[in-house]
Design a protein that fits this description.
It is a single chain. The protein is about 65% helix and about 10% strand. By secondary structure, the chain is mainly alpha-helical.
Length: about 110
Amino acid sequence: MVGVLMAVTIIGLPWSRACFTLGSFSCWPFGRRLVDRKSLTGRDDIGTGALGLIGNVIWLVCAGWHLALVHLTLALGLAVTIIGIPFALQHFKLALASLAPIGMAVVKSD
């Protein structure tokens, strides 16, 4: 939903793809990981260069640290039980992913 709202506005358009990347990664985190698009495709694009760095800094200040804090809190709560440990590990992964998602792509883990 947030990715669609970002895509509608001109100001939020650069962060729309990051919202969709995080959304798909949040829905299916098991067996998947985030990698840099430059290492995946072998070439630069607008999200992997200097503009991607600027976008990630703005993302971190405006939304990234909030998302990371929520995922870390959930991970600590889930890590209390044995059944919750796999989910806690995924929330740690999501916390790292939510800090700087611009220029990243979701791929299957090996």
